[in-house]
Amino acid sequence: MSLGRGATKVRNTIRTLRFQHGEMTQQALADRIGVTRQTVIAIEQGRYSPTLETAFRIAAVFGAPLERVFQYAGE
Fold this sequence. Notes:
Blueprint: E1 10-12, H1 14-20, H2 26-33, H3 37-44, H4 52-62, H5 66-69, E2 70-72
Helix pairs in contact: 2-3
């Protein structure tokens, strides 16, 4: 869920990981994890925090630990 004003405290490296994996498109990632391209865009831009299941699916696509893909920028 988003935390007001269009930004979350969850940061991610999805864009970097996509390019490290053969310049994977947002659509290709969306297809692999079962969401829309718009959802991938929102997650990548930090406007939406994915569900835990979706976060694990994203990490699995890249063969990376969850904490390499997502970081929490707490208080």
